[in-house]
Amino acid sequence: MSDRNPKATAKEYRNIQSMPPQSHAVINGSFDRDPARSIWTTFCVNSEGNQPTASLGVTRPFIAILDEFYDIVGPSAELEVIAEANAPQFHEAGVYIHETNEVFFTSNRMDTPNQSEYPFPCYTNFSKIGQAGKASYEWQILKPSSESFVLPNGGTIYNGKVLMAIQGYRSDVPSSLIAVDPITLQSEVLLNNFFGRPFNSINDVAVLMRPGVGPTDLGHRWIFFTDPPYGYYQGFKEYPRLPSQVYAFHPPSGSIRVVADGFQRPNGIVFSPDMLTCYITDTGFASADPEDTRPLDGSRPGTIYAYDIIHSPDGTDHQIHPPALTNRRLFAFTDCGMPDGIKCDTKGNVYAGCFDGVHVWNKHGALVGKILLGLDVPSSKGVPEGRGCANLVFVPGGLLMFAEDKAYLATIQAKGALLEEGSQKFVFDK
Q1: Quick check: is 111 in a domain?
Q2: The predicted structure's pLDDT at residue 379
Q3: Whole-angstrom distance, CA of residue 357 vs CA of residue 410
Q4: Is 0.70 topped by the overall pTM?
Q5: CA distances from 20 to 1, 5, 124, 361, 365 (A)
Q6: Residue 224: CA atoms inside 13 Å, Cβ hemisphere, count?
Q7: CB neighbour class for 197 (10 Å; exposed up to 12, middle 13-18, buried from 19)
Q8: Any bridge partners for residue 290, and if so which?
Q9: For the residues 101-118, what does the mean pLDDT come to?
């Protein structure tokens, strides 16, 4: 692996290493690794009985697999931790609000310490993070108004509000979609059933807009969401009443339909910037089944699927002509764990949180690079262990990534597909 682009000056691309595909096309000797861990933990023994590791050494957080990654991250790419906690407070969602220059996010599931504060045995926090003074950030836990706001997970922006995927708790609180005002925290339940059948545990959500239609036209916007059975296997939901599916919901008319199935664990969902392709992750790699002898199984999906989008014909009744997903195809399979949350930049590149950080593919499905998190966490062999990323969100000036007890901010050139023009910078000038 080389340290940087050979065309760069000494000060440019100092945080990038090159790992071209031919550098690891052949590994001599016997080798193996845990599929939940990074390629840099590959254990190999050559014919002399030695364990060579230098060829896979990594010391920089940005890994360029193809040259186009240099243009994605830029010559001044940097990575920093902007928030820490002693619990998994930085986990899912990641919704940037232009008006307040803040990001809303959720924690991982935690056991309830005091049921006078939380009515159920487990909970997840809903929080926000923003700038605080000179070159620092602060985050705080929030309390939305609705009693239905129980175990929030993924989220996106819808009509200026934070649209959250709510997992709910057993039969007491149904899984639902709830819109939260980012300033007042007043909330509204938009959907909580499929023709009377409760959802399993809604995981992630994205908003489809008709190409060429302004963002304020709610009539041409559909909410797509994934509904895996993780709640049941993690012990906080009843046995599934529905398959593992993906749905499309039209709030103005109340119309809902299933748009995709055939998943083990449908998880992250995002649309390409031109609104013509839908990407959905399948995290079957992690079953979450307590009786599973292989809870993390490399023979199961850690996959991103792509679909073509058929939009509703212009001027038609949305209940008669809803959008559809067609031409399912495998877009990418991750080499480390599974792809969880997923986002796109303005060029159509696809970013997904994986077990060693964030992987980046171009729109053709070629892996172009990685942003590695946790290089400060060594393994017993002295090889960087790294840490996973559950979800991520573009902010003006960079990419915010959630890694359970830490939030990482990457200063990169790429811009998020959902960011509004004229947003103030979330990243401080260096």
Answers
A1: yes
A2: 47
A3: 11
A4: yes
A5: 8, 11, 40, 14, 16
A6: 26
A7: exposed
A8: none
A9: 88
> Under a CB-based contact definition with an 8 Å cutoff, are residues 273 and 209 in contact?
no
Distance, CA of 389 to chain centre: 8
Widest distance between CA atoms in the chain: 72
CATH of the domain at 248: 2.120.10.30
CB-CB neighbours of 211 under 10 Å: 11
Residue from 124, 111, 128, 127 nearest 150 by CA = 124
Which residues, in sequence order, are CB contacts of 52 under 8 Å at separation 6+? Answer: 29, 44, 46
Report how far residue 9's alpha carbon sits from residue 238's, in angstroms, rounded to the nearest whole number: 58
- Name the residue range of residue 305's domain: 67-411
How many other C-beta atoms can be found within 10 angstroms of the C-beta atom of residue 205? Answer: 25
- Closest of 208, 210, 248 to residue 227, by C-alpha: 248
Q: Please name the residue ranges forming H helices in 9-104.
A: 68-73
Q: What is the DSSP letter of 41?
A: G
Phi-psi region of 13 (alpha: psi -120 to 50; beta: other; left: phi over 0): left
Report how far residue 344's alpha carbon sits from residue 244's, in angstroms, rounded to the nearest whole number. 24
Inside any domain, residue 176: yes
CA distances from residue 114 to 16, 43, 167, 172 in whole angstroms, order as listed? 46, 45, 20, 19
Q: What's the one-letter identity of residue 188?
A: E
Q: Say if residues 285 and 337 touch (Cβ distance below 8 Å).
A: yes
**Amino acid letter at 172?**
D
CA 304, 345, 35, 85 torsion-angle sign: negative
Q: What is the pLDDT of residue 54?
A: 46
- Whether 24 is in a domain gets the answer no
Cα(90)–Cα(307) distance, rounded to whole angstroms? 30
Assess whether pLDDT exceeds 70 at residue 10: no
Which pLDDT value is given to residue 50?
61
Domain tally, the chain: 1
Is 22 inside any structural domain? no
